[in-house]
């Protein structure tokens, strides 16, 4: 990601693209880990730019030298893109497209003559075209294949299993729980991309799919063995076998015919783990009752796009934040803080819990990135004499921001804010800047946009994260019940991954609800009940994999359903 951002900045320097910070930010926002997803995303972005250009051309023609028309256009466009971000599959890039369109309109309006407005339109094209081209051309060269990433994910889970069986420390325990809650969703997306590549054979893909499910089940069983204080044999056969399998996966191999390990007596989790490892990559068909009818393919919009008022309210709040930011820097005649508009599109979140939990990350990330930007202007820029040295600075800071952005979701938001503040502070016009005023104004704009967005989204139609918890708990219990009733190994391993993903979403909703202000938590009478049910469900998700405890798990699930009712 850091290399891609640096390459975009280099292209911006060569082509003299003004505000090269915007395409650099676009690259950090849309860059993917594997080569196939990068290629598809780059193609999609370059196709979207055609429609964006047509829209911009019409809007600039209608709003140039018409202040009221410009305000109306900003309002309508912001509403449309925020609505698409909430109610459609365009969510990953809708805010990015809205940012570019609205920003280009404002820049074009500030141009004194028509020719400059035309250039602004062309530069808006390059804001998307350059990141998209880098993704298409350089992504396949720099990024690994999805199959390679998938085997690395499986190997990491196997090593975690080995660590859990060898008396892990608290850090390894936390990391194992976080990895377990991820389920198999990310790995299955990589498997889907691997199928599109047409590089692996059908039987290899089937083995990888089963290995993805088995790795989640193995991690759950290893955690259950640790929780129940089950000890592996003195020869450490389990942990050694796990590490041997991880080594094979690390080299893009597929371990087969693994030895049938012997578990000690009174160690049901280890006994079941031995069975999972023995058939780790053997494809098995899930039970018919668990397969169900083929899922209906969803359309471009989510099912409740035009019936759920929350989508419209989200769009209205986002539009209000953008308009307040626009009026603020226009009335103050302070164009340097125009980054407040960019920030509104980046930091908008649907619930008060998300806004509250991520506000700290936004502010801290913006301050860290801005501090790095100002420090580089003072201490580094005077000593840079060529483009290579400048790109090295971009790469180092981008690497730091990208490293945080690709971390746990609880801190990833700060990484993008660091990149946002640094790029907007140190990149102005056609390249680097030594103007401290620019860095100061843009950091103020970022902080102002953060506070405006937070104030709007928490003051008008505040949406609580508490409402969907009940339905998520019901869904979790339904999947737990299916897992407890499953009789085939395929049904167990597949449902184990689904249970963990549902458990993760429920736990995350509880965290967000608990982070909301006291006056909102006062209207959450069942929050302790939901928290208790979730903790019990985490134990049942592991015990449900043990045949000897399935009846007890079924009875416990019935009690949990009654408590939920």
Can you offer a commentary on this structure?
With 565 residues, the protein is mostly helical. The protein folds into three domains: 2-143 and 311-459, no CATH class; 146-284, no CATH class; 469-564. Helices cover 75% and strands 1% of the residues. It is built from 25 helices and two strands. The chain has helices at residues 2-15, 21-30, 35-63, 67-87, 91-110, 114-137, 139-142, 146-164, 170-181, 185-197, 202-227, 237-250, 268-278, 288-291, 309-331, 339-347, 352-380, 387-405, 409-426, 436-459, 469-485, 489-514, 518-521, 527-543, 550-564, and strands at residues 427-428, 431-432. The chain has a two-stranded antiparallel ribbon with strand order 1-2. Strand 1 and strand 2 form a beta hairpin. Mean pLDDT is 85; it is low at 289-295.
**Helix and strand sequence:** HHHHHHHHHHHHHHHHHHHEEHHHHHH
Number of strands: 2
Question: Could you say which structural class the secondary elements and strand pairing correspond to?
Answer: mainly alpha
Strand content: under 5%
Spatial gap, N to C terminus: 47 Å
Number of helices: 25
At a glance:
This protein is mostly helical and about 575 residues long.
Q: Can you lay out the helices and strands and say which pair or pack?
A:
Layout: H1 2-15, H2 21-30, H3 35-63, H4 67-87, H5 91-110, H6 114-137, H7 139-142, H8 146-164, H9 170-181, H10 185-197, H11 202-227, H12 237-250, H13 268-278, H14 288-291, H15 309-331, H16 339-347, H17 352-380, H18 387-405, H19 409-426, E1 427-428, E2 431-432, H20 436-459, H21 469-485, H22 489-514, H23 518-521, H24 527-543, H25 550-564
Antiparallel strand pairs: 1-2
């Amino acid at each position: 990601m850091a290399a891609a951002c640096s390459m975009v900045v280099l292209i911006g320097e060569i082509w003299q693209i003004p505000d090269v910070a915007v395409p650099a930010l676009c690259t950090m926002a849309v860059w993917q880990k594997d080569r196939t997803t990068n290629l598809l995303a780059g193609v999609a972005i370059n196709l979207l730019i055609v429609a964006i250009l047509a829209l911009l051309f019409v809007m600039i023609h209608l709003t140039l030298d018409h202040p009221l028309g410009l305000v109306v256009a900003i309002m309508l466009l912001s509403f449309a893109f925020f609505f698409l971000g909430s109610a459609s599959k365009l969510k990953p890039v809708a805010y990015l497209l809205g940012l570019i369109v609205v920003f280009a309109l404002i820049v074009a309006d500030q141009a004194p003559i028509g020719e400059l407005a035309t250039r602004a339109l062309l530069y808006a094209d390059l804001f998307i075209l350059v990141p998209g081209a880098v993704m298409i051309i350089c992504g396949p060269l720099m990024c690994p294949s999805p199959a390679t990433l998938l085997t690395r994910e499986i190997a990491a889970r196997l090593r975690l299993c080995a660590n859990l069986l060898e008396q892990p420390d608290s850090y390894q325990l936390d990391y194992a729980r976080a990895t377990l809650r991820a389920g198999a969703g990310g790995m299955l997306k990589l498997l889907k991309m691997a199928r599109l590549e047409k590089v692996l054979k059908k039987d290899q893909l089937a083995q990888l799919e089963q290995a993805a499910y088995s790795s989640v089940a193995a991690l759950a069983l290893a955690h259950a063995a640790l929780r129940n204080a089950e000890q592996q044999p003195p020869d450490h056969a389990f942990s050694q076998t796990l590490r041997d399998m991880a080594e094979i996966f690390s080299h893009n191999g597929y371990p087969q015919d693994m030895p049938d390990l012997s578990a000690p007596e009174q160690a049901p989790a280890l006994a079941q783990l031995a069975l999972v490892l023995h058939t780790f990559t053997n494809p098995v068909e899930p039970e018919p009752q668990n397969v169900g009818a083929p899922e209906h393919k969803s359309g471009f919009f989510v099912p409740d796009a035009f019936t759920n008022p929350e989508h419209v309210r989200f769009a209205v709040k986002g539009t209000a934040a953008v308009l307040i930011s626009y009026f603020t820097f226009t009335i103050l005649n302070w164009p340097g803080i125009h980054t407040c508009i960019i920030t509104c599109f980046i930091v908008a979140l649907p619930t008060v819990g998300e806004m509250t939990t991520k506000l700290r990350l936004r502010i801290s990330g913006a301050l860290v990135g801005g501090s790095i930007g100002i420090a580089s202007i003072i201490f580094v820029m005077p000593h840079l004499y060529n483009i290579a040295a400048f790109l090295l600075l971009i790469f180092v800071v981008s690497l730091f921001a990208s490293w945080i952005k690709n971390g746990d979701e609880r801190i990833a938001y700060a990484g993008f804010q660091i990149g946002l503040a640094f790029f907007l502070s140190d990149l102005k016009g056609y390249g680097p800047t030594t103007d401290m005023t620019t860095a100061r104004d843009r950091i103020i704009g970022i902080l102002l946009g953060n506070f405006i967005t937070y104030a709007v989204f928490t003051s008008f139609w505040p949406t609580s994260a508490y409402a969907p918890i009940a339905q998520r708990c019901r869904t979790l219990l339904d999947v737990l019940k299916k897992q407890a009733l499953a009789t085939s190994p395929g049904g167990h391993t597949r449902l184990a991954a689904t249970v963990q993903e549902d458990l993760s979403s429920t736990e995350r909703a509880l965290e967000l609800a608990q982070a909301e202000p006291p006056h909102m938590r006062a209207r959450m009478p069942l929050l302790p009940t939901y928290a208790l049910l979730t903790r019990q469900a985490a134990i049942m998700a592991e015990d449900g994999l043990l045949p000897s405890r399935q009846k007890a798990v079924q009875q416990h699930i019935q009690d949990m359903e009654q408590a939920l009712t």
